[in-house]
Specification:
Elements lengths: L9 H9 L10 H10 L4 E3 H8 L4 H16 L3 E3 L4 E4 L2 H7 L62 E8 L4 E5 L7 E4 L11 E10 L2 E11 L4 E9 L2 E6 L8 E3 L11 E9 L9 E10 L3 H11 L8 H9 L6 H5 L2 E2 L5 E5 L8 E7 L5 E8 L1 H4 L5 H9 L3 E3 L2 E3 L4 H7 L7 E11 L5 E12 L2 E4 H10 L5 H20 L10 E5 L5 E6 L4 H22 L12 E3 L5 H12 L13 H12 L5 H11 L4 E3 L23 H14 L7 H34 L6 E9 L3 E6 L5 E5 L8 E4 L4 E4 L5 E3 L3 E10 L4 E6 L5 H13 L28
Parallel strand pairs: 14-21, 15-22
Antiparallel strand pairs: 1-3, 2-3, 4-5, 4-7, 5-6, 7-8, 9-10, 9-12, 10-11, 12-13, 15-16, 16-17, 17-20, 18-19, 20-21, 23-24, 25-26, 27-28, 27-33, 28-29, 30-31, 31-32, 33-34
Helix pairs in contact: 6-19, 13-14, 15-17
Length: about 850
């Protein structure tokens, strides 16, 4: 006789005997809550609850979701992520975080397993303080209903060395030159390695067609500091990381909390990485930023999360203050003097560091001499100084929403090097002879001195372009006309016009966002951009052509590869869903195809979605000594020369150009290449930090408009939710699929859409939606929307009557449609940028 499944929950059997045949027994809220009350500190997913409760019908699923929502709203349960919940009661946390002497560490002790046969799960704070991680079926466990069985890694497998790239809080990929394919390692086998760490892994076969391995040794840790929220109960503390990919909490003993308080954002340094993955790393608080959710705390936490510096070392400040501000006559005599020539700067209204200026004068032959004058930073920042070392380390200024983290101290960035009006300033210049049609006749590069006559904001320059009135109107309009000719020639040669929209904020004195808007690029912006592009291109070409044979003179190039054909094909298929066709048969006409698409989508609902995805499809630009060209700009050679106040590669380019102009020999390539790689990495970090600060401010702004209605477009789709981007301010939030009125929707990922099960209604990328702002979580930087329900009142009443006829239970979405037979797996409530 076949034995019954012993792992089934006994509660399910009891329910089955009580229920009349053919009538499903309703699931009560008490039954749901009792599971959590009996297991304080544990986390349960919807599926685990369903197994324990013996749920078999759609109505019972609706009961479970309705009760979970009610318990969450009454603060009896805490919604963690995906469909995971935990008891909110603080005593559960106290019981789950016993002192070290009370932890489960005995060798023969059975692992923690849920009563219904589920696997050990991760709690918000750890358990005893142990971190248990749950995996979804299909990753490393073929059967989701079977308990986890500890498996021994293949001790005889091949080992390789690589770098950790965290994918989620469940697994990471190890990128190694010794493997053609990235190796997946689940987090309980990472030995607490974090993003960027160098590890040695042992390969142990494959899963889902991808090699799988275990970390056997962490060779180099990139960082040992973590940013997160401190939770303290009974003197015991845990830091829950802000970074959602981090898969562990950090235990902080009472004596290592250093007066930081419960609920504050802190920076914690990990001092002990345990060998046993079931225990939490131990750390100490090194900086507290204040209560979580406050502007200063959150922005400072973002800075710490990305390893951005808070201040300059004292030695750096001392060096900057010691630099004389008087320009000697000897120094002036070594430079070309542009002080008598009309010169001005055009920058944002709130800018303080002016690192570029334009001069213009007419030559005897009727042509125009236009000078692009760049702050001569390397005159002040000399090699082998503390200033130089700090600039190299920072590599870039970082522009967060409400502050700038400069590469150079203020005395240099806003003082000595800033090309302020009515002051003599030292510059490194690229001077061009052009006619009014934009044709270039000659170029000159060298050290100069200038005297800016006027400081323009972009708005002031734009006013002179539009009204043809005001001081220097003739010069600005002439420069604008020539810039347009240069731009037209650039696009004729294959430059690509796709670009993402930039979000800006209006802030009050405390940094609170009063408004969000999309920055508009007008002719004044494009004027400056074209002449900076011209200078960067011509500097790169000049150095490249100094030597006709390999090895060429070493130079810092800004390169941009052509897009990967597979990614481009995917983008073309995506664009086709909107009725746009991309002909990829001729690579030489690719830029024309992309530019035509950019024009087609202009002003249409899908514009931002397609333009953003097009930019993501492109390869990432980087710094290198290889003269590989720039695909997006259609330049054979391109460098960064025009912003040395805020970019270290520009300082490198200045030094190399000066060296070659003085007849110097070729510079060794390896050290320059290493500095290029470092600058590229720091640039990525800066971009991620800037995006995080923008997202935080967007959430902060949306928290003041809860309940208001906006028009948006569908910008993303997952199995559990639909992302909608508000048109007027580009704030993005999620609508859960289960809460879309009138039907339950499932993802059709092959066609980039969701489809209603009953109505067959289709919602796809770029569709316009009316949404209501439902919630804005400052701590998680997430925004939740709900769709405006425009259905007739009669339809809503009929749905309500159907629910009442089933016993008044209601659906988990509060009267917004029925649950499906299968629940979507995963879901984090919202995504972070």
């Amino acid at each position: 006789m076949k034995r019954k499944d012993e792992s089934s929950a006994p509660r399910a059997a009891a329910k089955a005997t009580r229920a009349p045949k053919g009538v499903p027994t309703p699931v009560t809220k008490t039954e749901v809550f009792r599971i959590f009350a009996d297991n304080p500190g544990k986390v349960f997913s919807y599926r685990q609850l369903s197994r324990r409760l013996g749920v078999t019908t759609k109505e019972q699923r609706e009961d479970v979701f309705s009760h979970l929502k009610a318990l969450r709203n009454s603060n009896q349960l805490t919604h963690l992520q995906n469909d995971d919940y935990r008891l909110t009661d603080a005593t559960a946390f106290h019981n789950a975080t016993e002192p070290a002497s009370g932890r489960r560490t005995r060798k023969n002790e059975a692992p923690l397993v849920s009563r219904g046969g589920g696997r050990p799960v991760e709690t918000e704070f750890g358990q005893d303080p142990v971190v248990h991680r749950r995996r979804d079926a299909g990753f490393d466990f073929p059967d989701a209903d079977q308990p986890e069985t500890p498996r021994r890694a293949n001790s005889g497998g091949e080992t390789i060395v690589g770098t950790v790239a965290l994918a989620t809080d469940k697994y990471a990929f190890i990128i190694s030159e010794e493997s053609e394919t990235d190796v997946r390692v689940f987090t309980d086998r990472l030995k607490f390695a974090m993003q960027g760490d160098t590890v040695r892994i042992r390969l142990r076969g494959s899963r889902d067609g991808r090699p799988v391995g275990d970390v056997v040794e962490v060779l180099k840790r990139q960082r040992t500091e973590v940013v997160g929220r401190l939770f303290v109960q009974g003197g015991i503390g845990f830091v829950k990381p802000d970074n959602r990919k981090l898969y562990f909490d950090v235990f902080v003993p009472e004596e290592k909390q250093h007066e930081a308080k419960h609920g504050e954002k802190v920076l914690v340094r990990i001092t002990e990485f345990p060998e046993d993955y079931a225990r939490s790393p131990v750390g100490e608080v090194v900086r507290s930023f204040g209560p979580a959710g406050e502007n200063e705390a959150e922005i400072n936490a973002i800075m710490a999360e990305f390893g951005l510096p808070f201040e300059f070392p004292a030695a750096v400040e001392e060096e900057s203050e010691a630099i004389p501000d008087v320009i000697s006559a000897a120094e002036i005599s070594r430079r070309r003097d542009f002080r008598p020539i009309t010169t001005f700067t055009i920058d944002p209204a709130d800018a303080k560091d002016f690192d570029d200026a334009l001069s213009i004068q007419q030559l005897e032959n009727g042509h125009w001499e236009i000078g692009v004058h760049i702050a001569d930073v390397t005159h002040y920042v000399r090699p082998n100084t503390e200033l130089e070392r700090e600039a190299k380390y920072r590599a870039t200024s970082v522009y967060l929403v409400d502050r700038v983290i400069p590469m150079l101290p203020e005395r240099l960035s806003n003082g000595l090097c800033s090309l302020r009006p009515n002051e003599d300033k030292l510059t490194f210049s690229a001077v061009f002879e052009l006619d009014e049609k934009g044709k270039l006749y000659d170029s000159w590069f060298g050290k100069t001195i200038i005297h800016s006559d006027r400081r323009f904001s972009y708005e002031e320059a734009q006013e002179r372009i539009e009204t043809k009135e005001g001081d220097y109107t003739v010069e600005i309009n002439l420069l604008n006309d020539i810039a347009k000719k240069i731009c037209a020639a650039r696009f004729k040669k294959g430059a690509i016009s796709f670009e993402t929209q930039e979000v800006k904020f209006r802030l009050d004195a405390e940094g609170k966002p009063l408004g969000v808007y999309v920055k508009e690029r007008k002719d004044a912006h494009k004027l400056i951009e074209e002449f900076m592009l011209l200078a960067n291109r011509k500097v790169a070409e000049f150095v490249f052509k100094l030597k006709s044979r390999k090895p060429r003179f070493t130079m810092v190039y800004r390169t941009h590869d052509a897009p990967d054909p597979d990614r481009l094909e995917n983008f073309a298929l995506f664009a086709k869903k909107f009725g746009h066709t991309l002909d990829l048969s001729n690579p030489k006409k690719l830029s024309n195809e992309l530019n035509d698409l950019s024009e087609e989508v202009m002003g249409r609902p899908e514009q931002n979605v397609l333009q953003t995805l097009a930019v993501r499809t492109m390869s990432k630009a980087k710094y290198t000594t290889e003269p590989l060209g720039h695909f997006g700009l259609a330049f054979d050679h391109y460098s960064h020369f025009t912003s040395p106040i805020r970019r270290y590669p520009d300082m490198m380019a200045h030094r190399l150009l000066e060296h070659y102009l003085e007849g110097g020999k070729n510079v060794e390539v390896e050290p320059i290449e290493e500095d290029c790689k470092h600058s590229s990495e720091r640039e990525k970090i800066a971009a991620n930090a800037e995006r995080a600060s923008i997202k935080y401010k967007q959430v902060e702004f949306m928290s003041n408009v809860i309940g208001e209605t906006f028009k948006g477009v569908v910008s993303g789709l997952t199995e559990w939710g639909m992302f909608v981007e508000i048109e007027e301010n580009k704030c993005e939030g999620m609508v859960r699929l289960s809460e879309i009125p009138g039907d339950f929707y499932e993802l059709d990922k092959d066609h980039y859409r969701i489809v209603g099960q009953r109505t067959k209604r289709i919602i796809q990328f770029g569709d316009e939606m009316q949404i209501i702002v439902k919630a804005a979580n400052l701590l998680d930087r997430t925004i939740d929307f709900e769709l405006v329900d425009n259905r007739p009142d009669s339809v809503k009443r009929r749905e309500q009557e159907e629910r009442e006829s089933r016993g008044g239970r209601g659906s988990r979405s509060g009267g917004r449609g029925s649950r499906p037979e299968r629940e979507p797996r995963g879901g984090k409530g919202n995504r972070r940028r």
